[in-house]
TrEMBL record:
Pfam families: Peptidase_M1
Key words of the record: Metal-binding, Zinc
Origin species: Lactobacillus amylovorus
UniProt name for this protein: M1 family metallopeptidase
The record's free-text note on cofactor binding: Binds 1 zinc ion per subunit.
PANTHER family assigned: LEUKOTRIENE A-4 HYDROLASE
Domain of life (superkingdom): Bacteria
Residues annotated as binding Zn(2+): 233, 237, 256
GO molecular function per UniProt: metallopeptidase activity; zinc ion binding
SUPFAM superfamilies for the chain: Metalloproteases ('zincins'), catalytic domain
Residues annotated as the enzyme's active site: 234, 334
Matches recorded under CDD domains: M1_APN_like
Cofactor: Zn(2+)
Peptidase M1 membrane alanine aminopeptidase domain ranges (all copies): 169-394
């Protein structure tokens, strides 16, 4: 054991020193003791009083090792409206203690006995935990993956649980077929309160879903549709962020944009049992195979119109703290970030585009990628003038990094 010192240099960043030099390839053990309070807050980190019990969301409260690349440590400050993560995969072994009445959901695989939960999370970028003495648990399977739904009892919990599991199943089926195999044996879905305008939050092997409306006696019927969008989106992050890592602070579009494409441009544009059940709950007759086909046609026509225009789109490959002038950071990452691959899909043709996306996924499977890496794969499959014109409309070469 090497003696270490933790020296605070700010709210988020700390430097760790060892008492001897390490040569390339050498390793050592470091011990860091961290103590933090858990705020009462509707958030990805915080606890809430629900149904005469408590729900603890524990994430962004554990130490992260900064990414070391190109001879320097890449540190980003905490960003409450988004993410600052850029981590390589690691193996985590965690012992978590809670009262026996608590059910514990966590990244990786876990077992609980006498209040002690033992968590093994191999080849993951981080560990997140949600615990509650009011959780109920149900599960389903998709593509050999166990889907565990940790939900809260309410008047609407039966519909919530069924729709959440169905959406996760459909998403796994579609994304596995289109992109590639999910690397882990299970995934946990947890219900809680995440605050205004936050539908969900993603971690490797675990997703948090805001279900504040479902805990009320009455809720808007369109909340069922929002649930399918939230679950599908956060499941999509298992492919882009969880499996293919990227710098979420410097290039937020690379995980949010591609994940938004999976949600809106793949899941939504495929006729599924979950969306059909959602339409039934909403008393809507609009969701039909014919209308899904029509939506695909309209979006393709819109993309072709954009391709044929000389008008330039806004750039998307900017950091969260410096979006292009006049562009909201969220729009840059999510909406414009989705528009870019959606237009590429039409410019390249669907088969060629998904072949490229599958290659990108396999090439950077459990690794970290950049916008330049993504472009290299795209151009490997289609380096035509049309495709490069699309790239030039969305990507600012000044912000490309290796």
């Amino acid at each position: 054991m090497v003696k270490s010192f933790l020296t605070p240099t700010g709210k988020d960043k700390s430097n760790l020193f060892v008492n001897k030099s390490l040569n390339t390839g050498e390793s050592t053990d470091l011990t860091v003791n961290v103590v933090t309070g858990v705020p009462k807050r509707q958030d990805r980190f915080g606890y809430q009083n629900i149904n005469s019990g408590k729900v603890y969301n524990l994430s962004f409260c554990f130490p992260y090792l900064s990414d070391y690349r190109n001879g320097k440590w890449n540190y980003h400050p905490y960003y409450d409206a988004g993410e600052n993560r850029n981590s390589a995969v690691s193996n985590f072994h965690v012992s978590f203690f809670a009262p026996k009445s608590y059910k514990v959901a966590a990244s990786g695989q876990s077992t609980t006995k006498n209040g002690k939960t033992t968590i093994t999370a191999n080849n993951m970028r981080e560990v997140a935990i949600a615990a509650s003495n009011k959780f109920k648990v149900d599960h389903a399977y998709a593509n050999g993956v166990r889907i565990n739904d940790y939900y809260l009892a309410s008047k609407n919990s039966k519909q919530y649980n069924k729709l959440a599991l169905m959406t996760a199943q459909d998403s796994f089926h579609i994304f596995t077929k289109k992109i590639g195999k999910y690397p882990y044996k299970e995934i946990d879905i947890t219900e809680g309160l995440l605050g205004k305008d936050t539908g969900g939050m993603e971690y490797p092997g675990l997703i948090m879903i805001d279900a504040s409306d479902f805990l009320q006696k009455k809720h808007p019927l369109d909340r069922y549709n929002e649930l399918t969008e939230d679950v599908s989106h956060e499941v999509g992050h298992q492919w882009f962020y969880g499996t293919v890592g990227s710098d979420e602070y410097m290039e937020p579009w690379l995980d949010e944009g591609l994940t938004n494409l999976l949600e809106n441009g793949v899941y939504d544009l495929t006729y599924t049992k979950s969306k059909a059940y959602c339409a039934k709950l909403m008393h809507s007759k609009f969701y039909t195979r014919k209308n899904v086909k029509r939506a695909n046609k309209i979006l393709k026509e819109n993309a072709n119109q954009f391709i044929n225009k000389n008008k330039k789109a806004n750039y998307i490959n900017y950091p969260v703290n410096n979006p292009p002038k006049g562009v909201d950071t969220e729009d840059m990452a999510y909406e414009l970030g989705m528009d870019f691959p959606a237009v590429l899909k039409v410019a390249m043709g669907e088969n060629k585009f998904f072949d490229a996306l599958h290659d990108y996924y396999q090439t950077y499977y459990l690794k970290q990628a950049t916008t330049q890496d993504f472009l290299n794969i795209i151009r490997k499959y289609d380096n035509s003038k049309k495709v490069n014109n699309v790239i030039n409309k969305f990507i600012d070469p000044k912000y490309l990094s290796e």
